[in-house]
Specification:
Blueprint: E1 2-6, H1 13-22, E2 26-31, E3 45-48, H2 58-61, E4 64-70, E5 72-73, E6 78-79, H3 83-93, E7 97-101, H4 108-114, E8 119-125, H5 136-142, E9 144-147, H6 159-172, E10 178-182, H7 190-201, E11 206-209, H8 212-221, H9 226-237, H10 249-254, H11 261-267
Parallel strand pairs: 1-2, 1-4, 2-3, 4-7, 7-8, 8-10, 9-11
Antiparallel strand pairs: 5-6
Helix pairs in contact: 1-6, 7-11, 8-9
Protein name: NmrA family NAD(P)-binding protein
Organism: Streptomyces wedmorensis
InterPro entries: Ergot_Alk_Oxidoreductase, NAD(P)-bd_dom_sf, NmrA-like
Length: 274
């Protein structure tokens, strides 16, 4: 049975492909640019296609039993607008099972999935631990992270845990009709995460909280557009309590506790060393 993984070269998708192959599943990897799809196992079938252009997906869906579908596309993570067309094509192609990487909101795609007649499961990672790699350069260069809103807390999930959840559902079924919110085992502040990275690297790394005006000046100096600066300030100032909520999804689906941020930091320590 062939499983199609969309976004197969991304942070999550590459791990999903790896998990499925390790479990002995046949995998077809969808990417916009197959020629640039490096790092995937040699026995994975790589096909071209664009989720925003459903007419490019017919060959990718042919003979597929299950699909992992991105709920958002592009660098701006815009919600996928072609869900109804993709669901119709998947049903016609004989797809039976579906996991959807959810953006945590109910929209046109989510409704199309619910109406599709397929065995579906939404998977919503609260936040990826790998987002901390955005600090890697500044930590290597200055051993300091400077950001506003130091008290915001998120129960970030290790991307490999999320991949384990997705691969387990795709390969083995179960959890149909559910929205699985995937978290790590604890809610941490940015300073907590920086402390874990410091412990993992054996370096002294500081976290400095910035007031809004200093954050604006810093981000302008780094070349951020004004709309991006204001968006980030609004987002961090209004972080909902739900993103600090620890869930049992990893243990329910995979049968083990989720990995801690300290474990993630230890596995990625070299990225933060000079």
């Amino acid at each position: 049975m062939t499983i199609l993984v969309t976004g197969a070269t991304g942070t999550l998708g590459s791990h999903v492909v790896e998990r499925l192959r390790h479990a002995g599943q046949m995998v077809r990897a969808l990417t916009r640019t197959p020629a640039e799809a490096t790092g995937l196992p040699d026995d994975v079938e790589v096909v071209g296609g664009d989720l925003t252009k459903p007419q490019t997906l017919a060959a990718a869906l042919d003979g597929v039993f299950a699909v992992h579908l991105l709920g958002a596309t592009g660098h701006d993570h815009a919600p996928l607008r072609t869900g109804p067309q993709i669901m119709a094509m998947a049903a016609e192609a004989g797809v039976r099972r579906l996991t959807v990487l959810s953006v945590g909101e109910e929209g046109e795609l989510e409704q199309a999935v619910r109406d599709s007649g397929l065995e579906w499961t939404f998977v919503w990672p609260i936040d990826f631990m790998s987002n901390a790699l955005g600090w890697a350069e500044v930590i290597r260069d200055t051993a300091e992270v400077r950001e506003p809103y130091a008290n915001r807390r998120t129960a970030s999930a290790d991307e490999t845990d999320v991949a384990d959840v997705v691969a387990t559902v795709l390969a083995g079924g179960g959890h149909a009709g559910r929205s699985l919110i995937v978290s790590g085992p604890e809610a941490l502040t940015p300073a907590d995460k920086v402390s874990a990275i410091a412990a993992a690297t054996g370096r002294e790394i500081r976290f400095a909280e910035l007031p809004d005006d200093q954050a604006r000046r810093q981000w302008r100096a780094e070349g951020w557009p004004e709309e991006g600066i204001e968006f980030m300030l609004r987002m961090w100032a209004t972080v909902p309590e739900t993103v600090a909520r620890v869930t049992s999804a990893v243990e329910e689906v995979v049968g083990r506790p989720p990995r801690t941020f300290a474990q993630w930091a230890a596995a990625h320590a070299d990225a933060f060393r000079p």
